[in-house]
Design a protein that fits this description.
The chain is α+β, with helices and mostly antiparallel strands and 242 residues long. It has 2 domains: 2-77, Nucleic acid-binding proteins (OB fold (Dihydrolipoamide Acetyltransferase, E2P), Beta Barrel), CATH 2.40.50.140; 84-238, de novo design (two linked rop proteins). Helices cover 32% and strands 22% of the residues. The protein contains 6 helices and 8 strands, in the order E-E-E-E-E-H-H-H-E-E-E-H-H-H. It has helices at residues 88-104, 112-125, 135-147, 182-191, 206-223, 233-238, and strands at residues 2-15, 19-26, 30-36, 56-62, 69-77, 161-163, 168-170, 179-180. It is elongated and about 60 Å long. It starts with a strand and ends with a helix.
Length: 242
């Protein structure tokens, strides 16, 4: 049955000489895998666009609920990405985001509010908005609202330490290593009310940015069993200095 939907390209796996299995988070069906012929080689045409992480798609698909592998009948990138593919920093953020999304969305079904949140976030990353060096931190923090493990916003003078394992602010330094000191805890506290327009305020320098990113990736690794060890984190920190 042919159906229309929107999709967000995440990851892909090469299949044979010229084909690929592309993992796409769709608005109508949740996470889906699609066989794409001609993704590589001389006759690839525009199918290579299905391999670009975070591309936003309008799709006509042959969707069958009894199949694990679906087929794309027609698609177009809408709107085309103008900045993400051509910026090392944005591409590094895209790799981190898609790695985490491909694991956390693995068994996700239809969720219109989550899809709309991701779509608007991707459009922001492809814009000229100020503070985009902090975008991945903002996105990862706010995604926890949809996955059901948003930290507890209980920060005050008596609870100034953020315990990553417990997901809340505590009154004294934890006995384990997964926590933020008071400076970093205040940065986490500020994230609860930070909008996209306030991205520059999230982290003022590389040191703060790395502190927050390390805390957020640890938070995901601890609180979402499907995440595991995040491989792209080192690339983001060492190569792109963001």
């Amino acid at each position: 049955m042919i159906q229309s939907t929107h999709g967000i390209v995440l990851t892909h796996t090469r299949y044979g000489e010229s084909s690929a299995i592309v993992h796409i988070y769709t608005k109508s069906f949740g996470m889906q895998s699609y066989m794409v012929n001609g993704a590589y080689g001389r006759k690839k045409r525009n199918n290579f666009q299905l391999l670009q992480p975070l591309n936003l798609l309008e799709m006509e698909v042959n969707h069958r609920v009894d199949k694990d592998l679906q087929r794309i009948r027609e698609f177009k990138v809408s709107p085309p990405m103008m900045r993400i593919p051509f910026s090392q920093a944005r591409r590094a953020q895209a790799f981190l985001i898609t790695e985490i999304l491909s694991r956390t969305l693995r068994s996700e079904g239809m969720n219109n509010s989550l899809f709309d949140f991701l779509e608007q976030g991707i459009l922001a990353l492809d814009s000229e908005m100020e503070g985009l060096e902090n975008f991945h931190i903002w996105l990862l923090f706010n995604l926890t609202r949809y996955f059901g493990f948003l930290p507890n916003n209980n920060y005050n003078d008596e609870f100034p330490w953020f315990d990553i394992m417990e997901g809340c602010f505590v009154s004294s330094e934890p006995s384990h290593p997964y926590y933020l000191k008071q400076e970093g805890s205040l940065l986490i506290k500020n994230l609860f009310n930070t909008t996209l327009k306030e991205l520059p305020t999230i982290a003022r320098n590389v040191t703060q940015r790395r502190m927050l990113l390390d805390a957020m990736t640890q938070f995901y690794e601890i609180h979402h069993q499907g995440v595991g060890k995040i491989r792209s984190l080192q690339i983001l920190e060492e190569l792109f200095k963001i």
